[in-house]
Structures are given as structure tokens and as C-alpha cells.
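Final report, closing paragraph on structural work. Over the funding period we assembled a curated collection of sequence-structure pairs, and we close with a single example.
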Amino acid sequence: MNMGVDNKFPGKDLNQDDIENKIPLVAKKSPDHKTKFSCAGIEFGGDLIPVLAGPNLAETEEMILECAHAMKKAGAHFLRAGCFKPLTFPYRSPKFYETREDGLKWLKAAGAAAGIPVVSEVMHIEKIDVVAQYTDMLQIGTRNMQNYPLLTEVGKTGMPVMLKRGYGASLRDWLMAAEYIAVEHDALGHKPQILLCERGVITNHTHRATSRFLLDLQVVPAAQEVTHLPVMTDPSHATFWQPWVKSMMLASIGAGADGLMLEVHPNPPEAAVDPLQCSSFEQFEDMMAAMRPVAAAIGRSIDG
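Its predicted structure, as stored:
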């Protein structure tokens, strides 16, 4: 594949040997090579920009059902919620907790009731089967991006996978992690069904004391130069500050993102996890309305 002068890829940390020999399944074969795949009837990698939205944690059965109906009404394509939570610290309390298998059951039932597919994170190899049973797409979180045994076993399910970028990972690291999943999808006889998700990287300056990461919008076109996989962003986690989410969401669309993940909660100040980044139902409806003309301006859509 000729990606630059003298057939040498001009990237900072990816070279031509990497492209040809280390990520042959996720690398582009030609400039117009782009994978499209459908999950629960929603197409990724095409003109549609799917929106995956919902709370960080499926806190209660009633709460996740309320979220499911609100996300569907506003036009989201997937309901997202965590049930197994990779909190930075090990201690759990009435404020910081997981709902685990109960949460997965609530999530599946809420999605079915509202008519919206669901996605949730899988953290443990021994929990892959149970998470797969209750979801339409599996999520690999940033902290597990380079958990290669987990990537391999998740790939063996054959399910669509969202792979979040590690907050200290290079583009090379990210694509090589995706290759672990792609190898297993290829062994099952189908093209990779992998959604790459940029969710913020560590930098010296993040502009707020509470913000831990910075949204790397530049990685969207950078990744799309070398991989045929769809690339999306998570402005909520990346900014860690709700007032910035809308602008970064719109900028992501302008940068060419193939999807968006947004954190939405019925009562953001009372969210069990990450309340600073949550949007309310009303704010989410406003953001969905704001997306439409921006997507249309570049020949894409968020409706479908």
C-alpha cells in the first residue's frame, strides 16, 4: 500500500513494516478502503454517525429504564451503561459501586422495552460470556486496551467490539491492540467488526484542575489515514466537564468521527460515577439537535 513518498508511511510511530506485517488486518489496503458493519441493525462506517448514550453506571432498574426511553426518544442509536466498573481505586461504598450481573439484566430489559440496542464494558475473561449474553456490542475500556488475553477472548465471540484508546497509548499501540481482535474475527471467517473509540489522552495541560485527559481530535484523521476501521470519540470522558462536551462533540463530527459516545444521566449532580461530565436529558436533546446541521454540512447524518 502506497501511503507516502517512496512507499514509506510518514507516520511518527508507524512504519511501513508495521502496516504490512504487524497490522495487516486493520490496515487500509487502498485510500478508499473503509469497513462498514452492522450491529443490531445500526451501520457503522457509513454516512450515519451513530450516537451511543447513557449513564456511566446502570445504577438501578428504574433509572436505566428511564434512560433507555429518554435516549431512544432523543434519537440515540445505542444505550450505553457500565455494570462492571473499573474505578481508579479499589474501595466500594454506597457512592462508588457496581451493579454487575443485576445491572446487565436491567440494561438488557431496558433496551428491549425502549427498542434500543445496548453496549457495556467487559473487564474479565471469566465474565465475557455473561456480558455477551446481555449486550449487542462489547466494550473494551481504556485501562484494558492492552490486556491482550482479554482482547483475544473477546474477539473469539465474533461480536462487534468497541475498543477504547488507552490514555497513554500511541496510535501504533491502539491499532496493534485492535489487530488482536481482528485476528480472531478473521479466524471466524468475517471482516473485523471493531469500532475504535478515542476517549482522551494524558497531556501536560488539560485546562481545568478536575480534567484528567485531553480529547485528541487529531487522532481521528490520523487513524483514518492508515486503518479501514470506523473511528469514534467519547467527548464526555475526555473533557470530564459537561460544558465542554457539546463543542467537542460537534468538533468530532467535523473531524470525521464515525460515531459518538456521550454520558447522559437523569440527575447529573447525583450520578454515582463521574457527575462532572454527565449531560441531563434536556442537554442531550439539545446536543442531538445541534448535531444534525453539522453532520449534514459534511454529507452525513445522525438519523437512521
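Residues 1-7 have pLDDT under 50 and may be disordered. The radius of gyration is 18 Å. We thank the funder for supporting this effort.
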